[in-house]
Amino acid sequence: MKRVSLTQYLVEEQRQHQSINAELRLLIEVVARACKRISYSVSKGALGEVLGSADTENIQGEVQKKLDVISNEILLEANEWGGHLAAMASEEMETIRQIPSRYPKGEFLLLFDPLDGSSNIDVNVSIGTIFSVLKAPEGMQDPTEQDFLQAGSTQVAAGYAVYGPQTMLVLTTGNGVHCFTLDREQGSWVLTQSDMQIPAATKEFAINMSNQRHWHPPVQRYVDELLAGSTGPRGKDFNMRWVASMVADVHRILTRGGVFMYPADLRDTSMPGKLRLMYEANPMAMIVEQAGGAATDGQGRILDIQPTKLHQRVPVFLGSKEEVDVVTGYHAG
Ligand SMILES: O=P(O)(O)OC[C@H]1O[C@](O)(COP(=O)(O)O)[C@@H](O)[C@@H]1O
Ligand SMILES: [Mg+2]
Ligand SMILES: [Mg+2]
């Protein structure tokens, strides 16, 4: 089998398909290298003293794990001197990070969830990193938070790394979704699946059922019908999976289909859902759409949402198109 590395793939994208320029290609390589370093830290576990709490709180009011902090630092440090970025934003930081004046600036904005699935770190279950790339406004010297508030449809690239039994990098630059597996002996990312496609129909759903009593009526109705299986209105049995790491749940859906939901609920209306638009929902929505699936907030396309805050939360329904259409349709009444 001819092995295609991430570098070769990106060079081809630049030369043949012109879906990226040289600067974006190099930026993606830097992010991929940082993910490799995070993967090595993750795999050391207790041996690297990376497990457990960092005893600090992030801007979301969540207690940070050591690996949340380590992964954030790795991504910041790897990207600040590369010359491809105008600024960065992270789920773990209150506001944006400017590129220090001693380094050259580039034309892109990078946003990331450095470590997704934090509750799974200490129990050795798959976790990941999610990233999104936007264009900085032309001629921008020091971008502001406002410059990051662009709809997801303007993303020029999005991806995630999943640190599971294998470490994989899933990437889109707007020309399909491609999966690379980390070859630890060679230290390189190798293309292992091109053009991932999510089947339109599925019999598998993912939701945190423990929140059921708090859901709004459209989600209650939809999940009740799935649970009723072949004896209910859907006329078929559904299986359920919930890893509690969005990267792992989305990766399963990209591999074999399914619908993933993290709805808003009745508890705190100022916090619609748990997932963050800029670091989780937008990059995953771009990937899912590029793979032929759908992603909505129950009302409309996630990628069409005009963000109002950097750390904005959003309800998420994504995956196999037929199911996302059904649950979104129930919200319309
Ligand atoms: O605790 P719950 O309700 O199962 O939530 C799980 C969800 O929360 C998240 O872990 C949030 O991400 P972080 O770990 O980056 O905060 C998602 O990956 C996952 O889908
Ligand atoms: Mg996350
Ligand atoms: Mg996180």
UniProtKB/TrEMBL annotation:
Its EC number is 3.1.3.11. Residues 198-331 form the Fructose-1-6-bisphosphatase class 1 C-terminal domain. Its cofactor is Mg(2+). Mg(2+) 1 binds at residues 91, 113, 115. One of its GO terms (biological process) is sucrose biosynthetic process. InterPro entries: FBPase_C_dom, FBPase_class-1, FBPase_N, FBPtase. One of its GO terms (molecular function) is magnesium ion binding. It is found in: Cytoplasm. Residues 5-193 form the Fructose-1-6-bisphosphatase class I N-terminal domain. GO terms for cellular component: cytosol. CDD domains: FBPase. Pathway: Carbohydrate biosynthesis. The keyword Signal does not apply. Its main location: cytoplasm. It is an enzyme of class 3 (hydrolase). Substrate binds at residues 116-119, 208, 274. Binds 2 magnesium ions per subunit. Mg(2+) 2 binds at residues 113, 116, 280. Keywords: Carbohydrate metabolism, Cytoplasm, Hydrolase, Magnesium, Metal-binding. It catalyses: beta-D-fructose 1,6-bisphosphate + H2O = beta-D-fructose 6-phosphate + phosphate. It comes from the Bacteria. Belongs to the FBPase class 1 family. NCBIfam families: PRK09293.1-1, PRK09293.1-3, PRK09293.1-4. Homotetramer. This is Fructose-1,6-bisphosphatase class 1. It comes from Massilia aurea. The gene is fbp.
